[in-house]
């Protein structure tokens, strides 16, 4: 871990590390000479810490990720670069755009740490953002999030570390996907995951990056967003309950997920090969036109009209006697 | 690449020093990671120190964790060790490429734009290099209540490593062995999850903890089994370590 010596005004020297920068600290790019001033810490990822920063007071803010490890951070930069093609063709996708990569060298300390700057996404993790009255139904956020994941998959990458902390909902109500430290190209082993969202943990499949891996995590995220966080933790404690059928059964316990329940269960069971398949069902279900629900409804109508006809016949027969 | 992941909950109390044994493993290209497993009990300062020293001598990582976190810890440790091993190899190459005296072979000496390719190559090797992980499990009496968690974690580790493109195998051994052996091979090298189903079933717990001799025996087992040729599921365009520019790296 890179640590720095900072000489305070009174002359005392304190040791601190990249995870604990303070407002006002100045990060200077060794290769490009850019100066960035730290405003506050935004969060922590596996490969480093994220800060809100500005080049001068009053200028637009950016998010600055300061890494603890050159290789880990560069891996992340490589993933973000591969996704930069998403921004072409005028496609607006809610993922941070990479601005600049550089190293911060602390003058006099002889130590440096890598960093990169990207779009600052103001917002709350999805589980916090969608509580309270007057908010759109969960499946609307779900639909938007699915579109972002789908675009990522078009580049041949799985996100792999999908969890509440990595999905921010902006003040405008738009979900954004952040922290690409776990992004893995299709067919490779998932490098970084959180157990609750990992289908290997729930014995629902292999730990290989593919579209259905992300869809499984997405389904767990929806369960959590619907209020199932503590239930998930409870289930996870018992080895015997760590399986997809327990998860699928959980879906029925949440009213807010009723419309998309069948879709979520299919995601848990790994029945979708791609996000576009899932989105089709999701859209139809959310609009109340789910083919499976519709088929069930049709059956009810036939049964009812059939039994009504039988009743009418028996009344006529009785009357004719 | 070869790793030993040793899971123990106490100190060694018999035989050659485990720290020396771990150093021996490192010299033979085997990284030694150590996990101290606690569950409503403590490992104690002596145990903790020993665990750290063994891992340091073995060029690996050490952690003290509870049963609940064992699986995830093993995944991260295995991965970090693989990455560190590859980085070590790359460092040598980088030093000669950078050609400057005093160069540490660190990618920080390259400007950011030039790093992408190097790191991509490292990521590729991390994914495709053949890997063998030997799980060495302590079966002293205090480990009994934790064995179920160890079995689950072993299955979980199998899930992680078999997902890799490179040939990945797991072996399970426990110490002390049966009769007067220091170590017992429970599951020979495998990539199949099913082979781990019945491990530790009806296992008797034993009194001593011959950590050092157990590590020596495991080294012997790992050195005995040689990979027959460059067996790995090759990814198109990815060069295996045996024929790559980093050709001196012995798998």
Task: Describe the protein in words.
The complex is a heterodimer of chains A (321) and B (251). Chain A is an alpha+beta fold and 321 residues long. Chain A has helices at 70-82, 126-129, 138-154, 211-237, 244-251, 261-268, 275-286, 291-320, and strands at residues 3-7, 13-17, 26-28, 35-45, 48-54, 62-67, 98-106, 111-118, 123-125, 157-158, 167-170, 175-177, 184-185. In chain A, strand 1 (3-7) and strand 2 (13-17) form a beta hairpin. In chain A, helix 4 (211-237) crosses helix 6 and helix 5 (244-251) runs antiparallel to helix 6 (261-268). With 251 residues, chain B is an alpha/beta fold. Chain B is 40% helix and 18% strand. In chain B, helix 2 links the parallel strand 2 and strand 3. In chain B, helix 1 packs parallel to helix 2 and helix 3 (70-98) packs across helix 5 (147-162). The termini of chain B are close together. The relative contact order of chain B is 0.18. The chains are: A alpha+beta (321), B alpha/beta (251). Chain A binds chain B through residues 31, 70-71, 74-75, 77-78, 81, 101-103, 112, 114, 187-191, 195, 200-201, 206-208, 237, 239, and chain B through 68, 71-72, 79, 83, 87, 106-108, 111-113, 115-116, 119-120, 122-123, 127, 148, 152, 156, 159-165.
The helix fraction of chain A, in percent, is: 25-40%
Q: Oligomeric form of this entry?
A: heterodimer
- Most extensive interface, chain pair and sizes: A-B, 26 and 29 residues
Low-confidence stretches of chain A: 1-5, 7-16, 293-302
Strand content of chain A: 15-25%
What is the averaged pLDDT score of chain B? 85
């Amino acid at each position: 871990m890179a640590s720095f010596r900072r000489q305070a005004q009174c002359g005392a020297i304190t040791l601190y590390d990249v995870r604990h920068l303070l407002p006002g600290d100045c990060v200077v790019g060794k290769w490009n000479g850019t100066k960035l001033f730290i405003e506050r810490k935004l969060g922590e990822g596996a490969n480093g810490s994220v800060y809100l920063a500005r080049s001068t007071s009053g200028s637009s803010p950016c998010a600055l990720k300061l890494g603890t490890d050159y290789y880990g951070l560069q891996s992340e930069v490589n993933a973000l670069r591969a996704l930069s093609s998403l921004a072409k063709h005028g496609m607006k996708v809610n993922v941070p755009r990479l601005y600049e990569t550089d190293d911060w060298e602390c003058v006099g300390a002889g130590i440096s740490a890598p960093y990169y700057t990207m779009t600052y996404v103001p917002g709350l993790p999805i589980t916090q953002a969608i509580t309270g009255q007057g908010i759109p139904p969960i499946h609307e956020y779900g639909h938007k999030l699915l579109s972002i994941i789908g675009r990522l998959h078009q580049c041949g990458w799985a996100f792999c570390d999908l969890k509440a902390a990595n999905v921010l909902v902006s003040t405008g109500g738009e979900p954004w996907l952040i922290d690409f430290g776990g992004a893995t190209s299709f067919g490779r082993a998932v490098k970084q995951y959180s157990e609750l969202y990992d289908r290997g943990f729930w014995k629902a499949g292999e730990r290989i990056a593919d579209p259905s891996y992300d869809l499984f995590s997405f389904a767990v995220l929806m369960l959590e967003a619907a209020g199932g966080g503590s239930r998930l933790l409870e289930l996870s404690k018992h080895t015997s309950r760590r399986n997809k059928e327990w998860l699928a059964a959980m879906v029925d316990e949440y009213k807010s997920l009723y419309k998309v329940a069948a879709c979520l269960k299919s995601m848990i069971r790994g029945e979708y090969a791609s996000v576009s398949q899932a989105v089709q069902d999701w859209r139809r279900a959310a609009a109340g036109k789910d083919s499976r629900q519709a088929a069930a409804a049709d059956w009810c109508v036939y049964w009812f009209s059939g039994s009504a006809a039988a009743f009418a016949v028996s009344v006529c027969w009785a009357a004719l006697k | 690449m070869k790793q030993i992941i040793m899971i123990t909950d106490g100190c060694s109390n018999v035989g050659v020093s485990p720290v020396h044994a771990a150093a021996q493993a490192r010299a033979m290209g085997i990284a030694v990671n150590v996990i101290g497993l606690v569950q409503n009990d403590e490992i104690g300062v002596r145990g903790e120190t020993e665990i750290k020293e063994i891992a340091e001598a073995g060029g690996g990582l050490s952690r003290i964790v509870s049963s609940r976190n064992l699986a995830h810890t093993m995944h991260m440790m295995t991965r970090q060790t693989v990455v560190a091993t590859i980085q070590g190899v790359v460092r040598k190459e980088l030093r000669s490429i950078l050609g400057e005296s005093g160069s540490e072979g660190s990618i920080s000496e390259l400007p950011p734009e030039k790093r992408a390719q190097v790191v991509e190559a490292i990521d590729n090797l991390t994914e495709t290099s053949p890997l063998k992980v030997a799980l060495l499990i302590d079966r002293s009496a205090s480990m009994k209540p934790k064995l179920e968690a160890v079995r689950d974690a072993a299955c979980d580790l199998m899930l992680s490593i078999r997902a890799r493109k490179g040939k990945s195998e797991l072996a399970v051994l426990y110490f002390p062995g049966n009769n007067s052996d220091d170590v017992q091979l429970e599951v020979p090298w495998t990539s199949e999850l099913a082979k781990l189903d019945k491990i530790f079933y009806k296992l008797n717990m034993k009194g001593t903890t011959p950590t050092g001799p157990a590590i020596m025996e495991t080294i012997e087992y790992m050195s005995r089994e040689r990979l027959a040729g460059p067996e790995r599921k090759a990814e198109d365009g990815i060069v295996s370590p045996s024929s790559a520019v980093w050709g001196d790296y012995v798998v």
